[in-house]
Structures are given as structure tokens and as C-alpha cells.
Amino acid sequence: MELKTTHRWDLDEQEAMELQHQLALQVMKEDALEPVRYVAGVDVAYSEQNDKLIAGVAILEADSLNLVDTVMVEESVSFPYIPGLFSFRELPPIMKAFEQISILPQLIVCDGQGLAHPRRFGLACHLGVLYDMPTIGCGKTKLSGSYVEPDIQRGSYSPLMDQHEVIGNVLRTQDGVKPVFVSIGHRISLTTACEWILKLSPTFRLPETTRQADQIVRKGLKLTQ
DNA sequence: GCGACAG
DNA sequence: ATCTTGTCGC
């Protein structure tokens, strides 16, 4: 995949936050998707043994959820883990992985937040804006916002609020299972994003895109150790 | 000062 | 995220 904009990664904490404020203005919150034939899932694992990040991309056929392509990339850590600046640590290896995919997806599901971020610019927004592609953030825990527990049935959800602003949905993907935190990344509406996460999670708590990407990086982690 | 804090 | 064993439940 080709970048529309050049982007510096050698920033300090202050510069990174300022860049987030600037890029957040480019986030498109409405549906602007092509028909989705392929969906991508991304995940990153960390090896503290050699201080390396392993990024994995899984491409799934949207209707069957069959895995049609996988890519794995290993890279040295170049940015510390700071809540709120997550993308500056994980995006370099992720984008390196996307350079190697053989099938272009029309939608990307990220492991982490999108708009549900202190500066409204989580990893999913960052990736979406840089590639100008539809993205969804689907996190296992929340970063910011408050919510009431959604009903126990699959498909139930409640808004994730920051003051009076809806920044995402807390969505139950399986009966009686801990909900996930869904927020838009770029070029998609929150409603459509939740529909996709439900469609991608027919059997387990997390969407198949994330589960497949997670398998890829876990295997890579075993080879490194 | 205290609690919260994506992976 | 990763470090880690067993254990409860479908």
C-alpha cells in the first residue's frame, strides 16, 4: 500500500501530541467505504528479550471470513509505550507489514482505540488518515471515557462518553462475555463500525481479524524466543 | 496529592 | 504487551 503523505516518526513526546491534534482534523466520521470484499486485521506483539516489535497483518475474505493472506514483520522498538501515544510505537512495523500484502483490503480493523482517545486520534485514526482508508478501532479495554455496562446479550451496546461527546460504543459481541470498545478510525460511521465488528465476531469475543493477526504475531514471538 | 492509564 | 499454573466450566 502506498502512503499519501510523508510522515516523520522521530518525534519526542510533545511533538507527537501536537501532530495528533493536527492530524485529528483530517478524520472523516461518515461512511466513505467502497464495497468491502477483503478486511484486514492488525496486531503487534512485543518481545522484551530483544526489545523487538512483531507486527502481523491478516487479510480475510469479508463474507466467508476465510484467511487469504498473512504478513509478519519484526522491527526494533523506536518509541516507548505511553498511553495516548501508542501509534508512534506500533505504526512503524505495522505499515512496514502493509507494504508486503498481496491483497488490498477495503477496511482495516485495529487492535486498540480510534476516536476513543484523549485527543481523538488513536491508532486506528492514525493508520486510517495516513492511508486514507476506512479503519475501525476495537480495543479490549478502554483508554478514555465513561459508560454503563451494556445488556448481557450479544449485540447490546452502550455509548462511550467523554463529557457530552460520544466517542465510541461498548459492544457485547457474545452473550455474557466482557464487551469490546469500538470506535471509528477513519471514513466510517460508528454504527457501521459496530455492524462490522459484530459480523466479524460470530463465535468469539474478539473479531476474527484481530484473532488471526494475533495468531500470526504469537507464532513470530515463539520463533524469536 | 490521587487515581487512571489502548498494547 | 509479557512474565506464568492450575483450575473451573461448557
Structure description:
The protein is an alpha+beta fold and 225 residues long. It has one domain (32-224): archaeoglobus fulgidus dsm 4304 fold, CATH 3.30.2170.10. Helix content is 28%, strand content 27%. It is built from five helices and eight strands. The protein has helices at 13-24, 86-98, 123-131, 190-200, 208-224; strands at residues 38-47, 52-61, 67-76, 107-111, 135-139, 157-162, 165-171, 180-186. Strands 3-2-1-4-5-8-7-6 form an eight-stranded mixed beta sheet, sandwiched between helices. It is globular, with a radius of gyration of 16 Å. It starts with 12 loop residues before the first helix and ends with a helix. The chain binds two DNA strands through residues 43-49, 53, 81-84, 86-87, 89-90, 111-113, 116-118, 122-123, 137, 139-144, 181, 221. It is an enzyme of class 3 (hydrolase). Its main location: cytoplasm. It holds the Pfam family Endonuclease_5. Mg(2+) binds at residues 43, 111.
